């Protein structure tokens, strides 16, 4: 039996509780939130026996095997270090930290403590993504030349997810002081991982970030300045020489939550569109006569999601990916995006 604690009991923690409860021989023994009443409600919803408002107390009393860290972005580093210090395995939400320095500190601490460390880049749970990464790395579409990746949401321009400025869970996402790195840190982090998982590391990039007027007659709510970025566009060059564009926005009307990746190589192309399917990808390759290239839709074999991979890693002692180091590398890209936007220059990674 693996004894698991949930840290941070806001919106996303519900997905963690639901997924972990589906796994055999995993028991959620306690949950903790600095807002005790939120933790109590969460415990009631998910049938969790113990509730805490203090992380240290929970860890010392419950002595869990693992913690899933679903706190706000700004709390990931300190809370994870607190968990790792006690040699407890940790699955941390993305972004791993709010800057690369902290992220690499977390990598070093986890390595030293020899604990399983993973990051919830949840879209790695798409079996289409897993298969496409394998196909591209195997060389089925030849050498990569050109890449296009996007992650589009629309909660600032439509009410897909309710009225954003009335939801505390959306407000901190708009405020730098609350530790948010805006759209780039929130969903840009996913698409950077998604793209590099398939196409490999980036060697340089150029980025523009934008924070727009929200059209609600104020730029401050409950003391929170709405100053974090809402949209970004970046031009990247991969270590393998290919180039690509990557962008995301909270203003993409008509797209509640859309991720798409297209990779074009010398011998073909692949496309994943999670709006269409999590389990199918499109491929245009493999014909002898290139004039006859046609897109085909292919079903990918089933693969485990991150929650299952995390538990499997604890059981086998073999740390699966994406681990803290994967996420710290993505954090290097995010920091480079901010630097590029600040200086107007191309940044070498
Ligand atoms: N992987 C994904 O697809 C995905 C999706 C949504 C959110 N997220 C990430 O999950 C995390 C939580 O997002 P959310 O939407 O649930 O936010 P939320 O604001 O709804 O919940 C965060 C909770 O953390 C609590 N908290 C803050 N600091 C804490 C601390 N030091 N100790 C204990 N609790 C603390 C807050 O009180 C709140 O209840 C964020 O990092 C977010 O980026 C990931």
How does this model look, in words?
The chain folds into 2 domains: 2-122, Rossmann fold, CATH 3.40.50; 124-304 and 320-348, Dihydrodipicolinate Reductase, domain 2, CATH 3.30.360.10. The strands form 3 sheets. It has a 9-stranded mixed β-sheet. A 6-stranded parallel β-sheet has the order 3-2-1-4-5-6, sandwiched between helices. Strands 9-10 form a two-stranded antiparallel sheet. The longest helix is centred in the last third of the chain and has 20 residues, at 324-343. Helix 6 (127-138) crosses helix 8. The protein is globular and about 65 Å long. Helices cover 34% and strands 26% of the residues. The chain has helices at 13-21, 36-46, 55-62, 76-85, 100-113, 127-138, 168-171, 182-199, 306-316, 324-343, and strands at 2-7, 26-32, 50-52, 66-69, 89-92, 117-119, 144-152, 202-210, 220-221, 224-225, 231-238, 243-249, 258-265, 268-273, 280-285, 296-299, 347-348. The protein is α/β, with parallel strands linked by helices. Strand 4, helix 4 (76-85) and strand 5 form a beta-alpha-beta unit. It is built from 10 helices and 17 strands. Bound molecules: nicotinamide-adenine-dinucleotide. Nicotinamide-adenine-dinucleotide is lined by residues 7-13, 32-35, 38, 55, 70-73, 75, 79, 93-94, 120, 122, 169, 172, 186.
């Amino acid at each position: 039996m693996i004894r698991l604690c949930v840290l941070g009991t806001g919106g996303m923690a519900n997905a963690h509780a639901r997924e972990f409860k589906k796994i055999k021989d995993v028991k959620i023994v306690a949950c903790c939130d600095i807002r005790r009443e939120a933790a109590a409600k969460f415990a009631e919803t998910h049938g969790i026996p113990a509730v805490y408002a203090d992380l240290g107390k929970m860890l010392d009393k419950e002595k869990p095997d693992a913690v899933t860290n679903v706190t706000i972005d700004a709390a990931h580093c300190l809370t994870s270090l607190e968990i790792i210090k006690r040699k407890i395995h940790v699955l941390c939400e993305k972004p791993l930290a709010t800057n690369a320095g902290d992220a690499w500190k977390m990598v070093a601490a986890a390595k030293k403590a020899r604990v399983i460390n993973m990051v919830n880049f949840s879209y790695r749970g798409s079996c289409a993504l897993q298969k496409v990464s394998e196909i591209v790395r195997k060389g089925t579409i030849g050498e990569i030349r050109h890449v296009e990746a996007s992650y589009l949401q629309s909660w600032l321009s439509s009410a897909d997810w309710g009225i954003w400025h009335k939801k505390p869970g959306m407000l901190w996402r708009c405020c730098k002081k609350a530790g948010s790195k805006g759209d780039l840190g929130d969903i840009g982090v996913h698409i950077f991982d998604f793209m590099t998982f398939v196409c490999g590391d980036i060697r340089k990039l150029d980025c523009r970030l934008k924070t727009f007027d929200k059209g609600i007659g104020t730029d401050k709510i409950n003391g929170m300045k709405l100053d974090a970025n809402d949209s970004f566009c970046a031009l990247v060059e991969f270590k393998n020489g290919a180039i690509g564009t990557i962008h995301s926005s909270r203003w993409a009307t008509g797209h509640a939550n859309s991720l798409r990746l297209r990779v074009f190589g010398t011998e073909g192309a692949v496309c994943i569109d999670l709006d269409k399917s999590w389990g199918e990808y499109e491929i245009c390759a493999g014909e002898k006569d290139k004039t006859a290239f046609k897109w085909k839709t292919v079903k990918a074999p089933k693969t485990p999601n991150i929650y299952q991979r995390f538990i499997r890693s604890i059981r086998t002692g073999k740390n699966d990916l994406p681990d803290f180091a994967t996420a710290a590398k993505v954090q290097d890209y995010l920091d480079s995006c901010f630097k590029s936007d600040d200086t107007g220059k191309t940044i070498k990674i």
